[in-house]
Amino acid sequence: MLQYIDYATHERELDMTVSRDFWRAQLNGYDLDNRLLLPVDRHRLSDNERSGRASIAEITFSEHLSESFLAYASSHNVTPFQLGLASFYTFLFKLSTGQHDLCVAGVNANRYRVELQDMIGMFVATLPYRIQLDPTASFEKLVQQVQDLCLSILEHSHYPLQQIIGSHHSPAFLETMFDFITIESDIEHVDLDGAMLEPVSLGKGDFVAKFDMMLTFFHKLSAGISFSLCCSQDLFD
């Protein structure tokens, strides 16, 4: 049975030329220092001056809305991640009053081969998801565009972020994050070598704003869909 060490060895031997060229083309003409034109309430602080305080909005979809969201994804042959990302792009387009060249950071499972699906190990990667919107196109067209983007990125998700950003120490797209988390079942207890572990819910005051803005969808199979929008209080009221 293959183990993570086998993958790590294989990854070091991979020819990254095709993936390098893909990411160069993907970000061609995009200024990695260019921040989204969000309606902030305060000037940006340096990293060592940021407080980390967060404002969080949490919304739970009704049963009907959850079913409609999943039905739309299914009927258009896209994943919930892709539909959620398309919705986020639409939100950012509206929020930035029409900025059409958008790049956000997305959390990618990075299990791009069948052999990696059930392998235990840390594969998750943070990658830039850049899209150039057509303001006259329909939402359905945007969803298709996002699907194409995600599928193309999947083939090259193993390319290291450090190589993608090059000499840019802190590219702006890393300040706007997107994630979609599927929770297959409610976990009440975990038995770890005889030690019983229980989940602990964090209060809103316990959250830290690591980014300017982060949208996280949660799809709990037993309870539908919800999302959390976390924003830095250093920028937004």
From TrEMBL:
- Pfam families per the record? Condensation
Q: Where is the Condensation domain?
A: 3-237
A GO biological process of this protein is: secondary metabolite biosynthetic process
Matching entries from InterPro entries are given as:
CAT-like_dom_sf, Condensation_dom
Q: Could you list the residue ranges forming a coiled coil in this record? A: none
Q: What is this protein called?
A: Condensation domain-containing protein
- GO cellular component terms? cytoplasm
Please give the superkingdom of this protein's source: Eukaryota
Q: What SUPFAM superfamilies does the annotation carry?
A: CoA-dependent acyltransferases
GO function terms (MF aspect): catalytic activity; phosphopantetheine binding
